[in-house]
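> call design_seq(struct)
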C-alpha cells in the first residue's frame, strides 16, 4: 500500500522524493516486477545466477541450497556468489570492476545490500541498487532485489517511521524494474503465525538454518514460478576435497510449514 500525499509530507526529505518517484511509476504502470519464468525448453541451457552480498547471502550455504532446489526440476542452474561479511553494495561496486563480475555471463543478478542501509542509508542503498541494475540490464541479465528481514534492532528503528525495510526494498525494485524477492515478508508471516519456528541465530540478526531454508524456498518460487511444497528437507554436495557434505538439514515437521509459508507469500509476487 503506497502512502497518501499528507503522509509523504511527514517523511524525511530524501525518502519523500524517493517515494514520490514510486507513485509516478505506479500511476503510469511502466514497470514490471515479475520474472519471465523459464519454460521446459530452457532446461537444455544452463541458467546462471550471481548473488552479490554479505553474510545474509552466505549463511548456511544459501547459494548452494538455492542451486540444489532449482535443479530438482530437470533443469540446469549454477548459482555463484561474491560475498563479503558485513559489506554493502557500495563496497562491492568499488572493490570489483565490471569485468570482475562478468555479469554478461549470468541470467540473474541477486543484490543484497547491508541490512541497515534501507533504513539508515537509503541514499546509498538506492544509488548502488540503481547502478547494479543498470549494469545488469546492459547485459540482458535480470536483476533481483533480495528483500531481507527486519530483525529486532531494525524493528525498533522502523516502528516510529512510516516506512520499513520491506517497503523500501520492494519500492526500489519497482523503481529499477527489478524483481523483489520477498524473504522479509515470509519472515514476518512465520513470526506472526508460527512463533515456535526459530529464524535467528543467537545474535537475533543472522538467519538460522530454518531461515536459510525459508529464503531458499522463496527464491526457488520466485525464479521458477512454482511452489516449493514437497521440496526435500535436506540437500547435500561435495566440499573442495570431493567429500560429501550437507548444505542444510531442516526438521521433518518444520520443512512443510516453511514450504507452505513460502508458497503463500510468493503467490502475491510471482
Amino acid at each position: 500500500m503506497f502512502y497518501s500525499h499528507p503522509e509523504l509530507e511527514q517523511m524525511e526529505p530524501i525518502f519523500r522524493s524517493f517515494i514520490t518517484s514510486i507513485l509516478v511509476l505506479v500511476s503510469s504502470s511502466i514497470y514490471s516486477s515479475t520474472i519471465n519464468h523459464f519454460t521446459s525448453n530452457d532446461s537444455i541451457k544452463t541458467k546462471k545466477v550471481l548473488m552479490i552480498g554479505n553474510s545474509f547471502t552466505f549463511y548456511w550455504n544459501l547459494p548452494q541450497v538455492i542451486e540444489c532446489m532449482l535443479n530438482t526440476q530437470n533443469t540446469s542452474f549454477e548459482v555463484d556468489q561474491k560475498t563479503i561479511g558485513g559489506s554493502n553494495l557500495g563496497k562491492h561496486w568499488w572493490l570489483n570492476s565490471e569485468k570482475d563480475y562478468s555479469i554478461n555471463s549470468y541470467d540473474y543478478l541477486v543484490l543484497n545490500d547491508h541490512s541497515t542501509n534501507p533504513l539508515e542509508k537509503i541514499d546509498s542503498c538506492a544509488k548502488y541498487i540503481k547502478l547494479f541494475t543498470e549494469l545488469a540490464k546492459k547485459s540482458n541479465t535480470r536483476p533481483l532485489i533480495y528483500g531481507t528481514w527486519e530483525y529486532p534492532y531494525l524493528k525498533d528503528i522502523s516502528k516510529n517511521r512510516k516506512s520499513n525495510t520491506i517497503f523500501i526494498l520492494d519500492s526500489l525494485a519497482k523503481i529499477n524494474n527489478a524483481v523483489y524477492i520477498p524473504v522479509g515478508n515470509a519472515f514476518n508471516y512465520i513470526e506472526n503465525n508460527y512463533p515456535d519456528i526459530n529464524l535467528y541465530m543467537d545474535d537475533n540478526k543472522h538467519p538460522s538454518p530454518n531461515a536459510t531454508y525459508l529464503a531458499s524456498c522463496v527464491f526457488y518460487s520466485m525464479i521458477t514460478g512454482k511452489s516449493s511444497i514437497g521440496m526435500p528437507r535436506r540437500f547435500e554436495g561435495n566440499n573442495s576435497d570431493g567429500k560429501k557434505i550437507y548444505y542444510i538439514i531442516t526438521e521433518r515437521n518444520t520443512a512443510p510449514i516453511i514450504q507452505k509459508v513460502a508458497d503463500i507469500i510468493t503467490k502475491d509476487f510471482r
